[in-house]
Each structure stands twice: as C-alpha cells, then as structure tokens.
Amino acid sequence: TGHVRRMEQLRQMGFAVFAIDYRGFGKSDGDLPSEQMAYEDARTAWAWMARQQPDPSRRYILGHSLGGAIAIDLAAGMAGGPPQARGLIVESSLTTLADAANALTLSWLPANLILSQKFDSLEKIKSVDMPVLVVHGTNDRLLPSRFSESLFKAATAPKKLLLIDNASHNNSMWVGDAQYQRAMGELFGVPRVTAAATPG
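User: That's the sequence. What structure does it adopt?
Assistant: Structure tokens below.
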C-alpha cells in the first residue's frame, strides 16, 4: 500500500503495473524472506508477468529502495541472453546492505561483519546489459543519493542518472514528475504524457 501512489502515477504515464509483496510482507504469507528468497520471489513474479506480456520491448523492471537491489539482481540474471526487458529503473536504492547499515548506524558498528545478507548491487549492476535509469532524491535522509551516484558509475549499459532536487526517499517520482518522464523518454523512448500526477 505504500506504493499505491507510485503505481497510480505510472498508470497515468501509460504503463500497466504488476507489483507484489514479497513473502512475509503485506498480505503475502510466510516469514520475512532471506536475500535469496526475495530474489526467488522476484523471478517467480517476473516469469508470471512475462507470460501476460510476451513482448520484451514493452516490459520494464522497477525497484525502489531495497526493491532496487532486488530489481538489479533480476536484471543481472538476464544478462547475456536475448532481451527480456526494455530497461531497468532503480529508485532511491543502495550499493550494498552493509553500506546502507553504516549510513544508518553509528560509524564504529562493523555492519559488514554482522550482516549475513549482502544485496551487493554495486557489483551486480556491472553485469546488467539493458538500459538503466538511476533515480534518487537529493534530500533522502534514509539512503543518501551518493549510493545512486555510485551505482550509476558502476553501470556499464546505456545509463542515465537523475537526481531530483528537494525529493526525499519516497517522493522522487512525484516531486520530479516532469524530469522523470523526460529521462524515460531520452533513455527508453517512452512518450511523455501531458497529465502529470501532483505530489500529495
């Protein structure tokens, strides 16, 4: 439910949206997932979605926050084969879970030693071979925008970095609606719509 407004805005841009709760989140059954279980859920969801829309040029992968790391893993797993999606959009995400933990905790805490889950997006994004749009709000107080700048630098596919002034962790798409649409047009060839969602 935290992403309903984002999904509504994507629909206003002309997209159909398929979104899931990973197991243990929202109304999905099960305990909170491990890193590998979250990746498995994403692959299962993608396989279902791909059957509904068999044209890869009409499919996109989008992940926000920790979902960005899962989206990068999904896209990296498709590298080297026939195109499976038109592009990857990563919004307000992280480089690794250890980096994110260090940004959120006291500097002396050795987060990289106590975290068993890696979510190493910085390494995986190097393998992604579809166009990548990296988006981050400059006022994100949860995950700093330097994470997205590092992801952008590491990406090797056609790519674009979009830093949204005055946007926080959750509202980059709303605050930067026009910039978002312009970037998607430049990178993916998505036509811009005139009706824009307003921040709320």
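The radius of gyration is 16 Å.
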